[in-house]
Design a protein that fits this description.
This protein is α/β, with parallel strands linked by helices. 44% of the residues lie in helices and 17% in strands. The chain has two domains: 174 residues, Rossmann fold, CATH 3.40.50; 163 residues, 3-Layer(aba) Sandwich (Rossmann fold), CATH 3.40.50. The radius of gyration is 20 Å and the shape is globular.
Length: 366
C-alpha cells in the first residue's frame, strides 16, 4: 500500500496539517498515512509512530535536554523510513525535528513538501542550506516566498492556515465587568513551566489596582494538566475560544500571537528562555521584533518583553496601559490589517495540490 509520511512535531503543526491530510484522503482514499502528530492527526486516521507532545522542543538546547528520548524517536523514524520509504513526506514546521529528517528522507529518495517554513529569515541565511533539499516549501507569510527563493529554496506562498479557522460559536456571555485577561504561556512543557509562574505574578501585580480575572488558554488535555499543576487557582478555557472572549492577552511569543491578532485581542507579548539560548539568539536573530503581528505590520504595535525585561511589574504595567479604552480600541483597529496579509481561504487545498503534484498525480504545472 502506498504511504505518505506526515511529521508534525508540535501541537500547532498537528492542528494546521490535519485539514491537509483530510484533503489528500479525498483523492487517495486507499493510501496509508503515518508519522508524528497528536490528537488532530489521530482523528484523520494517521498512524502515529511518535507523539508530538514527546518531541516538541524549543531549539537545540531543549532537544539536548530531552536526550535519549529525542534520539530514540529520531532513530525509530529513520528505521521506519529506510525499511519502507513513503511515496511522499509532508513535514510541518518544528525545525528541531524536521531539519534532522530531511537528509534521511532525501537519501531514501522520498519527495519532500515542507509546510509552514521554519522562520529561518529571522536567522542567518546559512540556516537555509538544508531546506534547499526539499522539493517544495509551502510558506504561510507573504514575505517568506521571496526571501526563501533568494536563498535557493523552491517556494510557494499558500497562505496561513489560520485564515480558514472558524470563529467560535455559542460564546458564553460575560458575567460582571471585571477585565478578563487571557493567559497563553506557550504550548510546550518547558515554555509553560517558564512562563506561567511569571504570568501569575504579573496578574497578581495587576490585581493590586484592578479586579482583573485571569484565565489560562489550553492547547491540549495534557497542557491543561500541566497548567493546573503550576497554577491551580486559575480557571482554564480552550485557547481559541478564550481569545474571542477576553479583554486583553498575555502571551508567550509564538504562533498564538498571530491567533490573538486575528481574534482582535490586544496582547502583551513576552518570552523567556535559557540564558545560553538567549545569548545565542542575540547574536543570530536578525529581526527587530519577536511577535508575528509586529513583524507583519512593520511596527511594535504589541508590547514585547524579553528575558530580564519580563518582570511581573513590567508586564502588569503594560497590561494596564493596553487596557485603557482608547488604547485598546486603537490596537484592535490596527490588528484588522493582519488578516488580509495572510492570503485567501483554502490553504489546505493548496498544500494538498502541491503534494499531489510531487506525487505526479496531478497535471498542474510546478
Amino acid at each position: 500500500m502506498s504511504a505518505i509520511f506526515v511529521c508534525a512535531g508540535e501541537l500547532s503543526g498537528d492542528r494546521y496539517v490535519a485539514p491537509v491530510v483530510r484533503e489528500l484522503r479525498r483523492r487517495l482514499s486507499d493510501w496509508r498515512f503515518w508519522g508524528v502528530g497528536s490528537a488532530c492527526l489521530a482523528k484523520q486516521q494517521v498512524a502515529l509512530v511518535c507523539r508530538a507532545e514527546q518531541l516538541a522542543a524549543t531549539g537545540t538546547l531543549d532537544a539536548a535536554r530531552r536526550g535519549p528520548a529525542f534520539v530514540q524517536a529520531l532513530l525509530r523514524l529513520k528505521r521506519a523510513i529506510a525499511a519502507d520509504p513513503p511515496r511522499l513526506a509532508l513535514l510541518v514546521d518544528a525545525p528541531t525535528l524536521n531539519m534532522r529528517l530531511i537528509g534521511w528522507l532525501r537519501a531514501s529518495g522520498v519527495p519532500i513538501v515542507y509546510f509552514l517554513a521554519p522562520q529561518r529569515w529571522a536567522w542567518r541565511p546559512s540556516a537555509t542550506a538544508a531546506l534547499r533539499a526539499v522539493d517544495r516549501l509551502a510558506v504561510a507569510l507573504p514575505f517568506e516566498q521571496s526571501w526563501f527563493a533568494r536563498h535557493g529554496v523552491a517556494t510557494t506562498f499558500v497562505g496561513h492556515p489560520l485564515v480558514d479557522r472558524r470563529v467560535p460559536t455559542n460564546i458564553q456571555p460575560r458575567v460582571g465587568k471585571a477585565p478578563l485577561i487571557a493567559i497563553f504561556p506557550g504550548s510546550r512543557d518547558n515554555e509553560t513551566r517558564r512562563h506561567l509562574p511569571l504570568f501569575c505574578a504579573a496578574l497578581a501585580e495587576l490585581q493590586r489596582t484592578t479586579d482583573a480575572r485571569g484565565v489560562v488558554g489550553i492547547a491540549s488535555a495534557a497542557h491543561g494538566q500541566l497548567c493546573r499543576q503550576l497554577a491551580p487557582q486559575l480557571e482554564q478555557c480552550e485557547a481559541w475560544r478564550l481569545m474571542h472572549q477576553a479583554d486583553l492577552g498575555l502571551a508567550a511569543s509564538g504562533s498564538v500571537t498571530l491567533e490573538t491578532a486575528l481574534a482582535g485581542l490586544p496582547t502583551v507579548v513576552c518570552y523567556r528562555t535559557s540564558p545560553l539560548t538567549a545569548w545565542l539568539g542575540q547574536r543570530l536573530v536578525g529581526v527587530p521584533w519577536l511577535s508575528l503581528p509586529n513583524l507583519l505590520l512593520g511596527r511594535p504595535l504589541l508590547p514585547e518583553f524579553v528575558q530580564q525585561q519580563a518582570t511581573p511589574v513590567a508586564l502588569a504595567r503594560a497590561l494596564r496601559t493596553l487596557g485603557h479604552a482608547e488604547v485598546a480600541s486603537a490596537v484592535r483597529l490596527q490588528l484588522l490589517k493582519v488578516r488580509p496579509l495572510l492570503g485567501e481561504p483554502g490553504v489546505a487545498g493548496r498544500v494538498a495540490q502541491l503534494a499531489l503534484e510531487r506525487l505526479g498525480l496531478d497535471k498542474a504545472a510546478d
